[in-house]
Amino acid sequence: MLIKVCGMRDLENIQNLQARVQPDYMGLIFYPPSPRYVGDKDPGVYHSIQLRKVGVFVDEELEKVLDRVKTYGLNGVQLHGKESKDYILELKKHTNVFVWKVWSVKEELNWESLRPYEELIDAFLFDTFTEAHGGSGKLFNWQLLANYPFDKPFFLSGGLSLTHAAEITQLKSKIPQLVGVDLNSKFEISPGLKDIEQLVAFKNSLLNTEINEGSI
Ligand SMILES: O=C(O)c1ccccc1NCC(=O)[C@H](O)[C@H](O)COP(=O)(O)O
């Protein structure tokens, strides 16, 4: 199971994340209203970090996204707004970073609305709907994913915490397209500052449940 830790910005915290947790991705949020907004930090401070960086954007101007990809050395972008198919096509004309399209889940999921994106993107990411666009700290109804109709890999997000490792592993055993999890506010000391011990514990717990699941 891939792990993305989102909403990072403090260099020392990121260095500890890299040394102790070694997640597959870390997320930098480029959405000014977010309490985890990267702000106008010198992009150079992140250049020593080896973790793959995912830029999180909400209906951002294409020029700005492309600028952040370049200056922050992003490996991928996560689109959290109402970005259209044309927007993604245009983005892909100018950069070859991976693209994850976020689907904000309310009470139901209309798979036909996702279908046009399938061929364009690298993964879907399912998050809980919130007017703030992300970081709700709330779970959505995972049962809605039971009839996920695509081959496209997806990430699970929204309010995931230390207690969810076993349930996530069970979900993956039923839906193999679930390739990763996105962790955020439930692992925070304060917005943008992650509790490294909790993340280590989650990773170990996930590994243990995966081993146990495999040995049944
Ligand atoms: O976290 C934010 O503040 C945020 C704000 C606006 C758009 C996206 C945002 N976060 C992106 C993420 O990928 C989060 O990990 C995801 O929303 C889940 O967060 P949480 O419910 O806190 O686990």
Automatic annotation (TrEMBL):
Q: Per the database record, which ranges form the N-(5'phosphoribosyl) anthranilate isomerase (PRAI) domain?
A: 4-202
- Reported EC number(s) for this entry are 5.3.1.24
Q: Which Pfam families match?
A: PRAI (PF00697)
Q: Which CDD domains match?
A: PRAI
Q: Pathway of this protein? A: Amino-acid biosynthesis; L-tryptophan biosynthesis; L-tryptophan from chorismate: step 3/5
Q: Which domain of life is it from?
A: Bacteria
List the protein's name.
N-(5'-phosphoribosyl)anthranilate isomerase
